[in-house]
Write a structure and sequence with these properties.
The complex is a heterodimer of chains A (388) and B (264).
Chain A lengths: L18 H11 L1 H21 L4 E11 L9 H5 L8 H13 L2 H11 L1 H5 L17 H11 E5 L6 E7 L2 H59 L4 H32 L5 H25 L5 H38 L2 E7 L12 H30 L1
Helix pairs in contact in A: 2-12, 4-8, 8-11, 9-10, 9-11
Chain B lengths: L7 H24 L8 H18 L11 H21 L3 H4 L11 H29 L9 H26 L3 H17 L11 H7 L3 H13 L10 H25 L4
Helix pairs in contact in B: 1-5, 2-3, 2-5, 3-5, 3-6, 3-7, 3-9, 5-6, 6-9, 6-10, 9-10
């Protein structure tokens, strides 16, 4: 376009400098660029393309959910306007499994089961990425495990993705399957525990109600046995009926007697017989109504005790019913709150190594260094300008 | 073509030298040599971004998104001021450097590129410093997909540069239009997607937002920075097409400009 016109030698016989000379001159001119950008990038590329061992990643997705409510993905805009609630219980429960899978406990258990240390120290692993110690402390192992195992929870969808990287396809496959099994085991354990917690008090109440009911029943039985009376109420009624009939007969007899008084002599046998009947009936009535009310063995006293027992029995029965209903409710609630793991994507057996992502890493390093170099150049140039 | 042909590489180095010199000159004319001088290139955006970040520090997280709010706003703001700086200053390029136009080898394009370099270098440095700090104190997260973030920033610089060329060409000797440049960039702030993710919008608005290249570029950057950002609304090809289109019109515009500039 518009360059400075340089004097150009017309004869082509002038020896052109050798390319290596040129290269050396160029690198001297751009030594900072070489030192900051080119050399580190080359070193990184060397490591990643020559030394770094292949790693195989296996991935699985699952959802942890409760029976009663599916986690609703929150629409961002309503919350952007300041609506919407906080952390729901189901979300914290969903997170609990993730948290468990990322913990020291799991690492120790999985190490016992699958010999994690040996798997992370495969001979094909390179020095930089493998686990350095053959006898790592648990903390070391956990740190390394976190580098190789990724538990990601997507808040929009509620799906957890589990990614495991190892140096052999079979290794990562085995580890991820074991992890999923452990997660499921953990969920079952949580369910069991919460169920027993919730149901135990309801069960206890039911047992107490049952006990009380039984006690009342046995009291009633012993009462009946002691009195020799199956049904005091019934026998009371019968007694009353008896007294009533007797009194009716007595009234009749008296009426007859009164009718006779004016007609026949008191000494006549008819009159005497009627009188005797009246007397007998009177004695009967007095005796039977005495049975009804007076004295400790009287039916009235017995009936009082008996009704007391009856009322108590009704209460106990009611209490038992309520306790049984409560237990049923608690069972329902516990069933509803049961967590379970839904496997969305089953773990895959990796075939091709995709990690480390060599190209991406090297490119990232190169571009970052380029930006750093550019900014550094600007600052350095500014400093030089100042010093002039 | 004459027999005298310098190689493309030599031309390129030459142009780079010109741009480098213009960058330094730009630093001088903009920031002077008092107190921290050219470091204001970084200090200026730093001040703004720190305040914006601090405002968001006391908010709860934007519910429904797992993106830390402070990091979100810092990313949005730092990238937005790249756009704003380049777009706003594009109109004063020719007037400000009129004496330079005396030299044949200083083109409007060189001047534009120099401006772009200064603006973006300042904003990127600011961003790197603030974001590192935020990450250290636990308010941000380490970039999840750095390549996407870099691509996004690069696209933002490119589209600002391209739009800037158009602005330079159109507003030359048209004072009325010059007045419009600042309001436009001001209105862009809420519209550009610097402070919202497309996901948060109602569905009907989302569809419209997807057509807007700036929103797209912000989505790309956020997808690069945050683990939880969604990849639903990024169309790099579409954004690049817009960049290319604007670059083309802008280059045409400043080519016509060159002949109308009279060095007084």
């Amino acid at each position: 376009m518009h360059g400075i016109i340089k004097p150009h030698s017309a004869d082509a016989l002038v020896e052109r400098p050798h390319w290596s000379e040129k290269l050396r001159a160029w690198s001297r001119r751009n030594k900072w660029f070489l030192a900051i950008v080119v050399v580190p990038t080359l070193l990184a590329a060397l490591y990643y393309y020559v030394l770094a061992a292949d790693q195989y990643q296996s991935e699985a997705h699952f959802i942890v959910r409760t029976a009663d409510a599916a986690p609703t993905p929150s629409s961002g805009f309503s919350q952007f306007l300041g609506l919407g609630g906080g952390m729901s219980a189901s979300r914290s429960e969903a997170m609990s499994v993730n948290d468990y899978l990322d913990s020291q406990q799991v690492v120790n258990r999985i190490d016992d089961k699958l010999n994690l240390v040996e798997r992370f120290r495969r001979p094909e692993a390179d020095v930089a990425t493998r686990l350095w110690f053959s006898q790592p402390t648990p903390e070391m192992l956990l740190r390394y495990y976190r580098r190789q195992v990724n538990v990601k929870f997507n808040q929009e969808t509620g799906i957890t993705s589990l990614q495991v990287r190892a140096f052999r396809p079979t290794d990562s496959y085995a580890i991820i399957n074991e992890l999923l099994a452990m997660g499921e085991g953990r969920v079952n354990e949580i369910n069991r525990r919460s169920q027993t917690d919730q149901l135990s008090s309801a069960r206890r109440q039911l047992a107490e109600a049952e006990q009380a009911l039984l006690e009342i029943q046995s009291k009633m039985t012993s009462f009946r046995q002691a009195r020799g009376d199956i049904d005091p109420e019934g026998s009371g009624k019968a007694q009353l009926g008896l007294v009533t009939t007797l009194e009716g007969q007595l009234t009749n007899a008296r009426a007859q007697l009164n009718a006779m008084k004016g007609i026949i002599a008191p000494s006549s046998p008819q009159y005497v017989a009627t009188l005797a009947r009246v007397r007998a009936l009177e004695a009967q009535v007095a005796g039977q109504s005495g049975k009804l009310t007076s004295g400790g063995g009287a039916i009235a006293a017995r009936l009082g005790n008996y009704q007391d027992l009856q009322i108590r029995q009704q209460f106990a029965a009611k209490r038992y019913e309520v306790a049984a209903a409560n237990l049923e409710k608690a069972r329902d609630a516990a069933m509803k709150q049961q967590l379970y793991i839904v496997r969305v994507v089953d773990p895959n057996m990796p075939v091709k190594s995709e990690y480390p992502k060599r190209g991406e890493i090297v490119l990232t390093i190169f571009l970052s260094l380029l930006v750093a170099y550019g900014i550094g150049w600007l600052l350095a140039a500014g400093v030089r300008e100042h010093s002039l | 073509m004459t027999a005298i042909r310098s190689s493309f590489y030599d031309d390129l180095t030459h142009q780079m030298n010109v741009v480098g010199a213009l960058v330094l000159r730009e630093l001088h004319t903009r920031f002077g040599r008092n107190n921290i001088g050219y470091l204001w290139m970084i200090g200026e955006p730093m001040l703004l971004a720190t305040v914006i970040g601090a405002l968001h520090a006391f908010q709860p997280g934007h519910l429904g998104s797992a993106i830390p709010p402070v990091a979100f706003s810092i990313v949005g703001y730092c990238v937005f001021i790249i756009f704003r700086g380049i777009f706003n200053r594009a109109e004063s390029i020719v007037e400000g450097n009129l004496p330079l136009m005396y030299h044949r080898m200083v083109s409007v394009l060189n001047l534009s590129i120099a401006r772009v370099v200064v603006e973006s270098a300042g904003c990127i440095t600011t961003f790197v410093i603030i974001y590192s700090f935020i990450t250290l104190i636990g308010m941000g997260e380490v970039p999840a997909r750095p390549l996407y973030a870099m691509l996004g920033v690069l696209l933002m610089i490119w589209i600002s540069f391209a739009l800037g060329l158009n602005v330079t060409a159109i507003t030359f000797e048209r004072p009325t239009l010059q007045r419009l440049v600042h309001p436009i960039s001001y209105f862009m702030m809420p519209l550009s997607g610097a402070f919202f993710a497309v996901e948060w919008l109602p569905l009907s608005v989302q569809r419209a937002a997807d057509w807007f290249p700036l929103v797209n570029i912000f989505e790309i950057i956020r997808y690069g920075m945050f683990e939880m950002a969604s990849a639903q609304h990024i169309f790099p090809g579409y954004a690049i097409a817009w960049c290319a289109f604007f670059t083309y019109t802008g280059l045409l515009g400043i080519r016509r400009l060159r002949n109308r500039i009279h060095v007084r």
